[in-house]
Automatic annotation (TrEMBL), chain A:
The species this protein was found in: Actibacterium naphthalenivorans
InterPro entries: AAA+_ATPase (IPR003593), ABC_carbohydrate_import_ATPase (IPR050107), ABC_transporter-like_ATP-bd (IPR003439), ABC_transporter-like_CS (IPR017871), P-loop_NTPase (IPR027417)
One function term, GO molecular function aspect: ATP binding
SMART domains the record matches: AAA (SM00382)
Protein name: Simple sugar transport system ATP-binding protein
Annotated ranges, domain ABC transporter: 5-236, 252-497
PANTHER family: CARBOHYDRATE TRANSPORT ATP-BINDING PROTEIN MG119-RELATED, GUANOSINE IMPORT ATP-BINDING PROTEIN NUPO
UniProt keyword annotations, A-Z: ATP-binding, Cell membrane, Membrane, Nucleotide-binding, Repeat, Sugar transport, Translocase, Transport
Signal peptide start and end residues: none
GO cellular component assignments: plasma membrane
Subcellular locations according to the entry: Cell membrane
From TrEMBL, chain B:
Membrane topology: Multi-pass membrane protein
GO molecular function, one term: transmembrane transporter activity
GO cellular component, one term: plasma membrane
Pfam families according to UniProt: BPD_transp_2 (PF02653)
Subcellular location(s) per record: Cell membrane
Protein name: Simple sugar transport system permease protein
Keywords: Cell membrane, Membrane, Sugar transport, Transmembrane, Transmembrane helix, Transport
InterPro entries tied to this protein: ABC_transp_permease (IPR001851)
UniProtKB/TrEMBL annotation, chain C:
Alphabetical list of InterPro entries matching this protein: ABC_transp_permease
A Gene Ontology cellular-component term: plasma membrane
Subcellular location: Cell membrane
Topology term for the membrane: Multi-pass membrane protein
Major location (coarse): membrane
PANTHER family assigned: ABC TRANSPORTER PERMEASE PROTEIN (PTHR43370:SF2), SUGAR ABC TRANSPORTER INTEGRAL MEMBRANE PROTEIN-RELATED (PTHR43370)
Protein name per its UniProtKB record: Simple sugar transport system permease protein
Source species: Actibacterium naphthalenivorans
Single GO molecular function: transmembrane transporter activity
Length: 506, 361, 310
């Protein structure tokens, strides 16, 4: 195989962090090359340099034997480098064809483009209607738009940034078949992930990044997942543990919960029904955008529901607001850390006050008790090992993992009877993620009813007692988590939606 | 190539330094403007900023004017700042100011010529209620129909101006005024007059109200849950809802308070310095207060200082007009410039400026 | 009162004139907002355009040069807004207000000595035989150049947004600036260009007020026209065709109330004068009451600060 792209000594520093330091590796034509590393290891910066979004401080890249210095994404695309983003670079209010056209250098006229989209999407088993508005598509379909946008440019190198986080297991299968077909046609794929099993099934070789440096490269098929994890994290990780407990009485009873989504392109909840017992963790999986935010809002009280559709120990509470629910020990931690769970520009003390005012008694007749609020913030910081100079620092100055520990810790320390969390470890480094999961397990151990909404199936399987999945605003009936196969989980999540199997005959 | 880099925490130094820097830059740019108009820039700046307070001849007259001008500006700006902090944009304070004056004067004229202790308190209540009610129009339309409060509150200023004109020409016209537009002069009606509290200082009830508002706003924003919720809503509306803030209630509170304060300012003005309802009663305080609120960084103490400074430019402007023939409009442009510079240098609070390598961005 | 003095044909012809300044400003603002920028300084740009156009037209005795100067002056002013909001990342609402306050002051300053002067007349466009068509000729085809420019601009903006690559990119930037940036589009440059265009349109509208509609210069003569243009953009749900409808509706109300004043309707003049503002508010309420539609048609990044972090 001939070398397609060589990367030599790429270095990029931001004030305070060296994102990439002397990174070198090579990708061959038709190779599926994994870039493996934790959050914050420098994967994103590296691919942004390859895609021309960021300029390296030093080092060089060679593509097809020629120096390659893309000044902007346009230059990268012209050189045959295409990228599918982790957070989709799509425009909700525009239709599929317009979205694709925006990502092309010289798009053909409208009608021709629509025909090309149909043609390519059929060939790769990713059906798409060019006239549909992107905002109405499911996460899986939106990813197809991105992929087709890349494929129409005949890329030599396709960069995929965490592509499976929005897919059901069945959809992952189909994606992998598409990627294998592409690779067999000679397209190299740079596949970024921290999911080890995926990399072992798909990739030919792997470069492992840790704190911005290449620490190893290997053939992932020859390593076990545990070995890869150790390479990635740099130490053995403690997997969360819990002694088997017998769940108590039903604490939270949700029956026929239907809530209209507050946002234009959101998903409304339809007839959601489940119960959670004391000491139990219910894991709720599902592809992003299937009603996760809405479910959290309905349980936290931000969205109002019919009173009887949510009950706490038999008392109807569906119509109560967030603070009334806090008073009866129903607490929540939303997915978006900056701007929802916490106010970015406010200090940790103020953010402690944000949800802690009622249960921690931080006010008297509406007047704030700043010393008490500061003490509570300090308690969270100590108990959850939040790395920060002190509670006077702004929330946005914390790293993702530290802020998430603060947000979860803030709720856990308020002694919830019911705790609802959404994506508790999203974008968090492995050590922090392990600590957060352990905290959730300990909370359940002490008798709280815990609902964990997450798109990380491995996480859910690790900590849940029972599992259910959200699909287009409906919740599948919960089943015991132990013994569920990936196949079954995938079907609960809605299977492959309307994807077809690609005709692999190349 | 110059790049901006977001600071992890807003700079404390620049938070305090930017208004000063903006004032200095405005003086420089203003000086250029005055030079362009053919005036000596240094003399113009001195006339505007120094002479009103220290001129041997005029200062004794103009010094009390400082409080007279700054009072309504501070009172209105304090109210506006609450809403601005929460992302609720009442820019129709001028209209609420007019309606407050009309309602307050209406009460006074209804009681005329009765001399009773309760006339003035009733006027105060009527003024506040009038401004409040006028601000409730955009507030209710926003909570009910999501109508943009910026446009509605602003358009209502023009409606209020027409109402003012019709009052001055019709209903409230002074029957003893020989057919001239304008109401009776309330300064000549002791029970309704808002006179100087301490002779020679310019201090009247409206100025006292402004100082009280500064203190209350400070306590509200720093020591009370409602103030915390106002700040939270402005910074991240979603986090505010998560914290249990009801957005609609906040809209009603913020618009209502700013309307009531603007109405009070109007009442104190019509019963005091202005004396009567007339066609050109409103002087643009409601708009200048927007500049005051921003210049004071939406902070009560800052607004107090900014109000005094802006009051100074009013008097200084008058003085410069009288002594140097500087057009009145120059001061208006000068005030607008100040807001531009403030908004421009504000970037230093939240971003670091890096000069260095080019970045593909 | 004598309603027979109101001639419906004259009414239509004069409503086109009354609506043109607002239509021009609204079209400019529509493009700006489509790019995701909320510029509340329309009033300030209009009045600056009004005085720039008036002064240059008086000095050169050429209305055409006046209109050009108005566009240039207001565009320059809008660039202050552009630099502050796009490069120095200032709050768009506050900066827009500042632009209006500054524009009002600046125009009064520039307008010293122009009060009470008469501008050179702007000629009617000779449309040949069309002007001779009975009835319609007088109503529709005997206006000045700018009326037709504004109508052509409606079509041009509509076609640009709908059919051209430029329009697509503009909409994309307004819809999701982060995604547009990730695809390599120059968000800041595109927005600056849109802001300048918006400024030029507002300036042209302002000059039309001072050179044709009134025609003379008085301080603060725009009297809220810029704010009404902003309201019309909302009314139009960001669609050029509906902006035309909105502006002509507003023009109709204005002209009608003026005619009623002239006809001596038994209502105080002030109540008639406030009616255009009240009707604008009413229309805003009706439009925004339809929540779903309003949310869908507004550009998603409207008014949000863009800062490329990478």
């Amino acid at each position: 195989m001939t070398t397609l792209l060589t990367i030599e000594g790429l270095t990029k520093a931001y004030p305070g962090v060296v994102a990439n330091s002397d990174v070198s590796f090579a990708i061959a034509e038709g190779e599926v090359h994994a870039l493996l590393g934790e959050n914050g290891a420098g994967k994103s910066t590296l691919v942004k340099m390859i895609y021309g979004l960021v300029k390296p401080d030093s080092g060089r890249m060679i593509l097809h034997g020629h120096p390659y210095e893309p000044a902007e994404p346009r230059a990268a695309r012209a050189a045959g480098v295409a990228m599918v983003f982790q957070h989709f670079s799509l425009f909700d209010a525009l239709n599929v064809a317009e979205n694709i056209s925006l990502g092309m250098e010289s798009p053909p006229p409208r009608r021709q483009l629509a025909a090309r989209i149909r043609e390519v999407s059929d060939a790769y088993g990713l059906p798409l209607d060019p006239d549909r508005t992107v905002g109405e598509l499911s996460a899986g379909e939106r990813q197809r738009v991105e992929i087709i946008r890349c494929l129409l440019q005949d890329p030599k190198l396709l960069i995929m940034d965490e592509p499976t986080s929005v897919l059901t297991p069945q959809e992952v299968e189909i994606l992998f078949r598409t990627l294998r077909k592409l690779s067999s046609e000679g397209t190299a794929i740079l596949y970024i992930s921290h999911k080890l099993e995926e990399i072992r099934t798909l990739c030919d070789s792997a470069t492992i990044l840790r704190r911005g440096k290449v620490v190893d490269s290997c053939n992932p098929r020859e390593k076990s997942a545990a070995e890869l994890a150790e390479l990635m994290v740099g130490s053995k990780l403690q997997t969360p543990s819990r002694p088997g407990a017998t769940p108590g009485e039903i604490v939270l009873d949700v029956a026929g919960l239907s809530v209209r989504s507050a946002s234009a392109f959101g998903t409304s909840l339809r007839d959601v029904t489940f119960t959670v017992r004391a000491g139990e963790i219910l894991g709720i999986g599902g592809v992003a955008g299937n009603g996760q935010d809405e479910l959290l809002a309905a349980l936290s009280g931000e969205a109002q529901a019919r009173a009887g559709s949510i009950r706490l120990r038999g008392t109807p509470i569906g119509a109560l607001g967030p603070n009334q629910r806090r008073r009866i020990a129903i607490l929540a931690a939303p997915e978006e850390r900056l701007g929802h769970a916490a106010a970015p520009d406010m200090s940790l003390t103020e953010n402690a006050l944000l949800t802690g005012a009622i249960r921690e008694g931080l006010t008297t007749r509406g007047f704030l008790k700043w010393p008490a609020a500061r003490a509570f913030a300090e308690r969270v910081i100590t108990a959850f090992d939040v790395r920060t100079p002190g509670p006077a620092n702004a929330a946005r100055s914390l790293s993702g993992g530290n802020l998430q520990k603060f947000v979860i810790g803030r709720e856990v320390l308020q002694r919830p009877e019911v705790l609802v969390v959404n994506q508790p470890t999203w974008g968090v480094d492995a050590a922090a993620a392990a600590a957060i999961r352990q905290a959730l397990l300990d909370l359940a151990e002490n008798g709280a009813a815990v609902v964990v909404i997450s798109q990380d199936l491995d996480e859910l399987m690790e900590i849940s007692d029972r599992f259910a999945a959200l699909n287009e605003g409906r919740l599948s009936p919960p089943r015991p988590a132990r013994g569920l196969t990936m196949e079954e989980i995938g079907l609960m999540m809605g299977g492959a939606h309307d994807m077809e199997t690609p005709h692999v005959d190349a | 190539m110059i790049r901006l880099e977001k600071r992890p925490t807003p700079s404390r130094f620049w938070t305090l330094a930017t208004p000063l820097l903006a004032v200095i830059l405005t003086m420089i740019a203003g000086g250029l403007l005055f030079a362009f108009l053919g005036k000596d820039p240094l003399e113009a700046i001195r006339t505007i900023f120094w002479d009103p307070l220290f001129h041997p001849q005029f200062a004794s007259y103009s010094r009390p004017q400082l409080l007279v001008k700054a009072g309504p500006l501070i009172l209105i700006a304090i109210g506006l700042s609450l809403g601005f902090r929460a992302g609720i944009w009442n820019i129709g304070a001028e209209g609420q100011y007019i309606i407050g004056a009309i309602c307050g004067a209406g009460v006074a004229l209804a009681f005329y010529p009765l001399e009773a202790w309760y006339v003035f308190p009733l006027m105060v209540i009527a003024g506040a209620l009038g401004g409040w009610a006028w601000a409730m129009i955009p507030a209710l339309l926003k909570t009910r129909f999501r109508t943009n409060e910026i446009l509605v509150s602003l358009l209502l200023v023009y409606v209020a101006e027409e109402l003012l004109a019709s009052m001055a020409l019709g209903l409230m016209r002074n029957p003893a005024g020989g057919g001239f537009p304008g109401s009776r002069n309330l300064q000549q009606y002791p029970a309704a007059a808002n006179g100087e509290l301490i002779a020679g200082t310019g201090m009247h009830w409206g100025v006292a109200a402004a100082f009280i508002a500064v203190i209350l706003a400070y306590v509200l924003l720093n020591r009370h849950m409602l103030g915390f919720h106002i700040r939270l809503t402005g910074q991240s509306p979603r986090a505010a809802r998560f914290a249990g803030v009801r957005p609609n209630a906040l809209i009603l509170i913020c618009l209502g308070t700013s309307g009531a304060l603007a109405g009070l300012a109007g009442l104190f003005e019509v019963a005091g310095p202005a004396g009567q309802i007339s066609i050109d009663f409103n002087q643009g305080y409601g708009f200048t207060a927007i500049i005051v609120a921003f210049l004071g960084r939406l902070h009560p103490v800052g607004i107090l200082l900014a109000g005094l400074l802006m009051g100074l430019t009013y008097i200084g402007g008058d003085l410069a007009q009288f002594m140097l023939g500087l057009p009145a409009a120059a001061i208006q442009a000068f005030q607008g410039m100040l807001l531009f510079f403030l908004l421009g240098v504000d970037v230093l609070t939240n971003y670091r400026i890096r000069i260095g390598r080019t970045e593909a961005a | 009162m004598d309603l027979s003095t109101i001639n419906p044909l004259v009414l239509i012809a004069s409503l086109m004139v009354a609506a043109t300044p607002i239509l021009l400003a609204a079209l400019g603002e529509l493009v700006v907002e489509k790019a995701g920028v909320l510029n509340l300084g329309v009033e300030g740009m209009m009045i600056t355009g009004a005085i720039c156009g008036f002064a240059i037209a008086v000095e050169t005795q050429s209305p055409a040069l006046g209109f050009l100067a108005a566009m240039a002056g207001a565009a320059l002013l809008s660039l202050i807004f552009g630099v502050l909001t796009q490069i120095l990342l200032a709050n768009q609402v506050a900066t827009g207000l500042a632009l209006t306050l500054f524009g009002l002051g600046l125009s009064a300053l520039l307008g010293q000595g122009y009060n009470g002067l008469k501008p050179p007349p702007t000629g009617k466009l000779d449309l040949g035989p069309l002007g001779d068509v009975p009835v319609l000729g007088k109503v529709l085809f005997s206006h000045d150049m700018i009326v037709y420019v504004s109508l052509a601009l409606v079509v041009a903006v509509w076609a640009m947004l709908r059919y051209t690559r430029l329009g697509l990119i503009l909409r994309a930037v307004g819809e999701n600036h982060d995604a547009a940036h990730a695809l390599g589009y120059k968000v800041v440059r595109i927005r600056l260009a849109a802001i300048t265009f918006g400024g030029a349109c507002a300036g042209l509208g302002g000059a039309y007020l001072s050179l044709v509609r009134v025609p003379q210069w008085t301080d603060g003569m725009t009297a809220g026209a810029g704010w009404i243009a902003l309201a019309i953009v909302v009314f139009a749900s960001w669609k050029p065709g509906r902006a035309l409808l909105g502006a002509y509706l507003f023009g109709g109300v204005t002209v009608l109330q003026l005619n009623l004043q002239a006809a001596g309707l038994a209502v105080p003049v002030q109540y008639l004068s406030m009616s255009p503002y009240l009707i604008t508010i009413l229309v805003l309420v009706i439009m925004s009451a339809d929540r779903g539609r309003a949310a869908l048609s507004a550009p998603a990044c409207l008014g949000r600060v863009f800062h490329a972090s990478s």
